[in-house]
């Protein structure tokens, strides 16, 4: 029996995961960029490091979005980027950032958490696997 070709369009949870990951990583990357610029301007090298690490995490999220949605190759990169974003947000919260604004805390935590959960759903993993089998069959 011939298997039907997998859909080219990713499943809905993959798209929602990508959107949540992007919305979760953007504020972290913007604040990190601003902190890095101020750190560099005042020649405090720790500020530059604190700007580079979240920037690298944001790039990981963007690469994960491209790999998942446009190429259909990997869901893991998006999950790793989202979990790293969540780690950065939790670390910032333990350091006292946004302690007086519970609304922003919910938004900053919910985005990467939902992204990691949705990107690792069985339907998304099965779609990525089916796309890989299709690519292997084409040669």
Task: Please give a handful of descriptors for the protein shown.
single chain; 5 helices; 139 residues; mainly alpha
Description:
- With 139 residues, the protein is mainly alpha-helical.
- It has five helices and no strands.
Give the helices and strands, then pairings.
Blueprint: H1 12-41, H2 45-71, H3 76-94, H4 102-119, H5 122-138
Q: In summary, what is this structure?
A:
The protein has 139 residues and is mostly helical.
Integer count of domains: 1
**Using DSSP, what is the number of strands?**
0
Outline type: elongated
| Low-pLDDT ranges | none
Sketch the topology as an H/E string, one letter per element.
HHHHH
Mean pLDDT: 86
Overall helicity: over 70%
């Amino acid at each position: 029996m011939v298997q039907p070709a997998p859909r080219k369009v990713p499943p809905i949870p993959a798209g929602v995961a990508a959107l949540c990951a992007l919305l979760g990583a953007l504020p972290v990357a913007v604040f990190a960029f601003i902190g890095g610029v101020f750190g560099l301007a005042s020649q405090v090298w720790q500020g530059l490091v604190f700007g580079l690490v979240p920037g690298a995490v944001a790039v990981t999220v963007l690469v994960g979005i491209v790999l998942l949605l446009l190429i259909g190759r990997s869901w893991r990169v998006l999950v790793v980027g989202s979990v790293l974003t969540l780690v950065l947000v939790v670390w910032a919260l333990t350091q006292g950032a946004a302690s007086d604004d519970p609304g922003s805390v919910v938004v900053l935590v919910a985005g990467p958490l939902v992204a990691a959960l949705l990107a690792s759903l069985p339907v998304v993993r099965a779609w990525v696997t089916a796309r890989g089998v299709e690519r292997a069959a084409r040669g």
